[in-house]
């Protein structure tokens, strides 16, 4: 798939990137190259290939899924600029 200059302009606008008018042809060529590479990847047959988390086969570390309250309220509130009665204190914003 080839990207034309109008499409490159639209992509730059959507990405909020300022691209000078003279640089649009180069951007269109680069975007076309990226899409061409993606088309090459789509040609690869991955049937039967399991997804990997790493190139080294290993199991993910797992922990028991237990709900706790954390028991670290004092440690968390030490980081707060203002804490009262066990909660974060913030300025009033609604009258």
From TrEMBL:
Top class in the EC scheme: ligase
Protein's UniProt keywords contain Transferase: yes
Keyword set includes Transmembrane helix: no
EC number: 6.3.5.-
Swiss-Prot/TrEMBL GO biological process terms: glutaminyl-tRNAGln biosynthesis via transamidation; regulation of translational fidelity; translation
Source domain of life: Bacteria
Catalytic activity: L-aspartyl-tRNA(Asn) + L-glutamine + ATP + H2O = L-asparaginyl-tRNA(Asn) + L-glutamate + ADP + phosphate + 2 H(+); L-glutamyl-tRNA(Gln) + L-glutamine + ATP + H2O = L-glutaminyl-tRNA(Gln) + L-glutamate + ADP + phosphate + H(+)
Pfam families: GatC
Gene Ontology molecular function: asparaginyl-tRNA synthase (glutamine-hydrolyzing) activity; ATP binding; glutaminyl-tRNA synthase (glutamine-hydrolyzing) activity; transferase activity
Keywords: ATP-binding, Ligase, Nucleotide-binding, Protein biosynthesis, Transferase
Subunit structure: Heterotrimer of A, B and C subunits.
NCBIfam families associated with the record: gatC
Function: Allows the formation of correctly charged Asn-tRNA(Asn) or Gln-tRNA(Gln) through the transamidation of misacylated Asp-tRNA(Asn) or Glu-tRNA(Gln) in organisms which lack either or both of asparaginyl-tRNA or glutaminyl-tRNA synthetases. The reaction takes place in the presence of glutamine and ATP through an activated phospho-Asp-tRNA(Asn) or phospho-Glu-tRNA(Gln).
UniProt xrefs under PANTHER family: GLUTAMYL-TRNA(GLN) AMIDOTRANSFERASE SUBUNIT C, MITOCHONDRIAL
Family statement: Belongs to the GatC family.
Protein name: Aspartyl/glutamyl-tRNA(Asn/Gln) amidotransferase subunit C
UniProt organism field: Tabrizicola piscis
Gene that encodes the chain: gatC
């Amino acid at each position: 798939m080839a990207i034309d200059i109008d499409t490159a302009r639209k992509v730059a606008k959507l990405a909020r990137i300022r691209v000078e008018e003279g640089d649009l042809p180069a951007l269109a060529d680069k975007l076309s190259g990226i899409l061409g590479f993606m088309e090459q990847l789509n040609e690869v047959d991955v049937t039967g290939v399991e997804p990997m988390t790493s190139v080294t086969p290993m199991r993910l570390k797992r922990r028991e899924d237990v709900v706790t309250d954390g028991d670290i309220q004092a440690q968390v509130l030490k980081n707060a600029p203002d804490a009262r009665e066990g909660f974060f204190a913030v300025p009033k914003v609604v009258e």
